[in-house]
Amino acid sequence: MVWRWRWELFVLASIAYICLAHGTAITGYFEANPLWLNALLIIVLCGWIVTDNPARRFVLNRIWCVITRHRLRACLVEMRTLNYSGNLPFIFGCLSTKTGQIVWLWMRPGLSMEDLDNKAETIASACWARSAVIARSKRNAAVVRIEINRRDPLSKTHITSPLLNDTSDMPEAAVADDAVMAFLTPDATDSAPHESTTQHDRLAKTGTDGETRTRTSKTKTTASVNDGQAVILGSNGEDVSDYV
User: Fold this and answer.
1) Nearest alpha carbon to residue 28 among 13, 38, 43, 16
2) Under a CB-based contact definition with an 8 Å cutoff, are residues 94 and 137 in contact?
3) Which helix or strand (DSSP H or E) is residue 9 part of?
4) How many other CB atoms are found less than 10 A from the CB of residue 121?
5) Going by C-beta distance under 8 Å and a sequence separation of 6 or more, which residues neighbour residue 35?
6) How many Cα atoms within 13 Å fall on the side-chain side of residue 189?
7) What is the band of 173 on the pLDDT scale with cuts at 50, 70, 90?
8) Do residues 120 and 133 lie in contact, with contact meaning Cβ atoms separated by under 8 Å?
9) How far is CA 150 from CA 30, 52, 61, 153, 205, in A?
10) What number is the average pLDDT over the span 65-85?
């Protein structure tokens, strides 16, 4: 019980110590100063607590760790994750991370990782989190690690790709052109337009049976059009530029 409520007991002990040891000095300070100075001091103190600073982050992280431990323990009770003696897994640590908290469990005799199988969504719901990931320690089967994810640090971050550095200063028309097609376009042999022709070379071949066989060689030709773009033609004279 002392380990479970250690942070609450520490806060109560600190408040009791401040009130007993320094209560008279604090009261005398506020009584000696004018009202406007006391109000200004309170406003500055509240503003410092609200603004982002290391002390505020530490306090919020500790508060969420305490909340996570209590919510996880309540969830384990409701899920009946108990051994035959009625003992729960021992929560011996809770650390804060950039995405949430990490809780370490010590599985008592009679409990194991299998008792938490398929319970990730239930734990995430009980801890008011986005998701939960349960993993077992590689060295000790009694140590279980539960990662509570509350936020995504990359959700509001705009990631720029370094691949666009080469085309960042180019106009949109130049970027829109396909650079690969420029290498696939055949070089024009002459600038004058000419008609595309298909050359058919018939080769006669005489077999052993006296029959004459013919073979036709098919070649691809190109024809230039008026707009300066080369057109790639197939063996039958069909325009196949769109397929290249």
Assistant:
1) 38
2) no
3) helix 6-32
4) 10
5) none
6) 4
7) low
8) yes
9) 41, 19, 12, 10, 81
10) 93
Q: How far apart are CA 171 and CA 194, in angstroms?
A: 34
Question: Coil, strand, or helix at residue 149?
Answer: strand
pLDDT at 46: 85
Hey, what are 240's tokens? 């196949």
Quick one: which of 94, 92, 96, 93 has its CA closest to 57? 96
Residue with tokens 């009202």: 35
Nearest to 197 by CA among 161, 233, 230, 227: 233
Contact (CB, 8 A) for 235 and 198: yes
What pLDDT band is residue 212 in, cutting at 50, 70 and 90? Answer: very low
| pLDDT for residue 147 | 94
* pLDDT beyond 90 at 244: no
